[in-house]
Structure formats: structure tokens, C-alpha cells
Amino acid sequence: MSGTNEQSNVSFQSAADAVDWIVNLVKFGVRPGLKRMEKLMELLGNPERRLKFIHVAGTNGKGSVCAYLTEVLKQSGYGVGTFTSPYIEKYADRIRYNGQNIADDDLLSVVNKLKPIVDEIAASELGQPTMFEVSTAAAIEYFARISCPDYVVWETGLGGRLDSTNIVSPILTVITNVGHDHMDVLGDTLEKVAGEKAGIIKSGVPVVSAVTQPEVIDVIEQTAKAKNSTLYLMNRNFHFESLSSLENDQTFDFFGPYRNMTGLGISLNGKHQLTNASVALMAIELLRQFYALIVEDEVLLQAMKETKWAGRLEMVSHSPRILIDGAHNPEGGAALAQALRDTYHYNKLHFMMGMLSTKNHSGYLRHILPLVDTLILTEPNWHKKEEASRLADLAETLLKELGRSDVDVIVEPDWKTALDRLNSLIGQDDLAVVSGTLYLIGDVRSWILHQTDSEKGW
Hints:
The chain has helices at 2-8, 15-24, 35-44, 62-75, 104-122, 131-147, 183-186, 190-197, 214-226, 272-291, 297-306, 330-342, 361-368, 388-402, 415-425, 438-450; strands spanning 53-57, 80-83, 95-97, 100-101, 151-155, 172-175, 207-209, 231-233, 239-246, 249-255, 260-266, 314-318, 321-325, 349-354, 374-377, 408-411, 431-436. The chain is an alpha/beta fold. Helix 2 (15-24) runs parallel beside helix 5 (104-122). The longest helix has 20 residues, at 272-291. The protein is globular and about 60 Å long. This is tetrahydrofolate synthase. It is an enzyme of class 6 (ligase). It holds the Pfam family Mur_ligase_C.
């Protein structure tokens, strides 16, 4: 034990060293459960009790909903903290105040405060806190004692019930949707996954959701009822109607229990973003009703229109046209395929993808393969990567099923070389898409926009 104390007294000298320590905890994996988080909070003096959280879970769309909420709250003059994962380029992306990443000095002081506490817990029967637990604790400490936001937009990492973010008592809960993702951890049926997501529903706290499958709605409804929480369900309590869908410009009408809003505009692409925007609007309406949130209509319209979210149908290059999208599960693949049909015009579609080994790749590929002319399979620079050759075998099998012998399938495990191959294929009227795990998307985005490598972690 004395060795641990000696080690605990060593402070990090830079934010980069602090981040290295946190990211290296990734080797301890994902260990669901809240015991270590409860101890972390207790030893920090329960800073989470000082904050108003809007807790957001769901298979897809969490990040976009968080982005809409953050922008509306910020433009309405409120201080807003945002915690999201995985990050796209830098570790500090995941902890933000009013849209700005946590400053290096603040990150350093928070981590130096956490380090001895983490070491103390690691030496106890509870075991080593994970990378995500330490990141969650760092965010809470920063928000509670340094930036002190009016609201914290709080995204779950994985699932909900046993996720380390579930240490908080929110004022509002959002469950965007439930799909086929992380089933190795959350359960092998949609009902089981829904049960895990529904674990963030707290007693008497309203829930906004856009889940659609009858069996999933049942799970969410039963949990909300057991917790005396009012459920606001898309297409029952609120809905939207699409007016127009152009690239970087969609308009829609919103119909809610308290009022209707017409002619709203968003810049994010894909029909699924109308769903995400409507979920965020319903959440804002509840904050107005129950927490006297003041949002002027003019500000609301402007904030929705100006919301951006990196790595989601984002055009990172216009000449040649390269679109990146973090779709990595069947539902994400379906949303991406619909957007490629509805929103974008092109002669040929060149598609590059890389995945983690834990995902449902055939469900994803079935949506994408009917559209592509070229398929480049690569690998993210990440320890759980799927081998490009295995993806290629799967793609070839599915292409045979589809009766397509005209797709050029290229295997290039090195993602930078794969990106060069992609670039060399793009004709003037073509579109290139890079999709799959956000670990690949983050790297590609950093490389195209800044010619630098992204930091790694989740």
C-alpha cells in the first residue's frame, strides 16, 4: 500500500502526460457496474449533486441530440457543459463548456486531483477504475468545481444501466433509439438492449424517446411507469413533418404537446437528423415547462440551423468530394444509405470503410452494397479492429447474393494508403464516402483537414 501512496504523490506536469495516463487505462477494458464510480464520487465529495444533467442514451443519434441541445442552451445565454464519446480528434473534445474544449490547465489540475483517489481505489477490493470511469469523474469534477454550467448535456458511453455516467440524477432523460449495437455486452435481443438503455430512467424524471419497435416501446413504457416517469414518445406525444431535404439544408414542422413550430431548418444531413432535431426540441420544450428555461423563438431557430456535429455526414473535402460518416451498425448503415439516395447526387460512389471486430457487419453492408461502385476495405488503428480481409470475404459473399459482379473490391489494411487509393479513384462528378467506426473517422478527418494524426481513445 505504501508504494501506491508514493506513486500517488507524483503530479503530472502537462495535460499531455495526464491524457496519456487516462488513455493507457484502456487496457483495463469495459467493466460495467457503478461501485467504483460511487467510491470516486464519495472521495471527491459528491460533486455530481451540484449539477443539472440532461442524460442522453440510445444506439444512434446521441451525439447529434447532444449537439442540438448544447447549441440551443448556449445561444440562449446559459452556461452549458457537454460530455460526449468517443471523441473525434482530441481527448479534450469530450469535455466541453459552451462549445469549447476543457483547457489544458483545467484538465491537468482535475487529473492531478483524481490520480491519488484512483490509485487508492485501484489498491482496494474494487479494483482499477477504467479509462471511461476516470474520464466521467474528470468531467463531473470540472463541471462542478471549475466551469459551473447551468446545465450539463450528458451522453452515456455504453448502454445505460451500468454505464459510469449513470452515477448522476438528471432533470431530464432522453433515449434516442434502440438498435443492434454492443450486443456482446448489452444482450442478444432488442428487448435486453432496451432494458439496459432504460436503466437511465430515474424516479419522477420525464423521458423523451424516439424508439419505434413495439417490443422496445413496451420496455421503455414499463420502466417509465415503474419509476413514475412521464414518457414523451415520438409519433405519439410529438412528431415532425419534413418539408424539404437538400444538402446542408433541411426544413420541417414540429408538432408537440405544448405548441407547434413551423418552418424549422437544420444544416445536418439525412432524414434521421429530423428525428434527432425533434427529440431535442421536445427536450427543450420540457425544460421550458418544468424548469422555466427561457428560449426565444428566434434564438431557437438560429441555434438549430447552426448546429454542427463532426463526423456525421460531414463533407470534409469539396474537390474531390469526400464525405465522412460514423455509421457502424445496421441502423446507422440504413440511415447513411437513405441519405446517399435522398440528399447526394453523384456519378459513381466510391466507399471506404473500417470496423471494429465487435459489430454486426453484414447488417450494415446489406444497406450499403447496393449503392457502391468501388468498395475499399481498411482497418482502423485500434486494438479491437476487424481485419480488412475478413470484411472483404463477407462483402464478396453478400455481393454474390445481390447478384452484383460489377463492384471493384479493394483490400488495403493501412488506412492512409487506402485513403490515397480512394483519392485516386474520385472523378469530377463522383462522391467518396469514408464510413465505419469513429476511430477510423477521427483519423481520416484529422488527416484530411489538418494533416495530423488524431489522438486515440474513447
